[in-house]
Amino acid sequence: MTKAELIELLVERIERLTKKEAELIVNTVLKSISDSLAEGDKVELRGFGSFKVKERRSREGRNPKTGTRVQVDEKKVPYFKAGKELRERVNN
Amino acid sequence: MTKADIVEIVHGRTGFSKKESSEAVEMILEILKEELERGEKVKLSGFGNFVIRSKDVRKGRNPKTGQEMEITARKVMTFKPSQKLKDYINGG
To answer: Could you give the ipTM of this predicted complex?
Structure first.
């Protein structure tokens, strides 16, 4: 399923929504999650799961092609942990 | 951030009532859960992909007792953040 298909399904399920409105809602939800993570705040969606940001420290890596050493900067990585309901439903 | 905060943001950005915003947010999550429950991949461009992976039966050990046991086949969900989300979280 793509984002476009999610928007279409949302319009089918909540009939008073126009496609434009459904699109705005979906984009607002995704943007609010992204914003929260960018601010370093976790997002907990009960029944679905939680998004968090993990900090990766800088490390010395190697260019796999040439073998030269390179400094890999510290970075933040978003990750998701499925909630109990979602885990159980996925696993039937 | 919780679901209630996202509902508040949707309410503020769209002008839908809190009740309508809440209904839409819950419906989005329900659609995602149904899709994943069916084993379908969800691709949200600019945000990330949710993918279901099947894991075979394998042997494991109870870490406390050291006793060997069978870990049943199961499905697990992984989230792969988009490059855009990763850049955004790192201030890009």
So the answer is: 0.88
